[in-house]
Design a protein that fits this description.
The chain is mainly alpha-helical. The chain has helices at about 5-40, 45-55, 55-70, 75-85. Helix 1 packs across helix 2 and helix 1 runs parallel beside helix 3.
Length: about 90
């Protein structure tokens, strides 16, 4: 008897599919939020954009790369204050 033909088999399959679909959204949201805290003034918006771009995963990964390459907020304010002092 095939395991997927039983009620338990369907339940396990449904949980694994749910897990595989849910994990990328949670990971992208968390990474976007923590990077957004360091690099933007609106981390919740950064996390929301990251989660929405997870529907098209290559765009989500590109968004994370852009956030990684962006300067930190502290570096930006220090750079601006140095330029204003000259």
């Amino acid at each position: 008897m095939d395991e997927s033909n039983t009620l338990a088999g369907y339940f396990v399959w449904d949980l694994s599919v749910l897990f595989l679909l849910l994990v990328p959204f949670v990971v992208m949201g968390a990474l976007s939020y923590f990077l957004g805290k360091r690099k933007t003034q609106q981390p919740k918006l950064a996390a929301f954009i990251g989660v929405m771009l997870t529907f098209a995963l290559p765009l989500g990964v590109l968004y994370l790369v852009v956030l990684l390459l962006k300067d930190d907020l502290e570096c930006q304010t220090n750079h601006q204050s140095l330029q204003a002092g000259n």
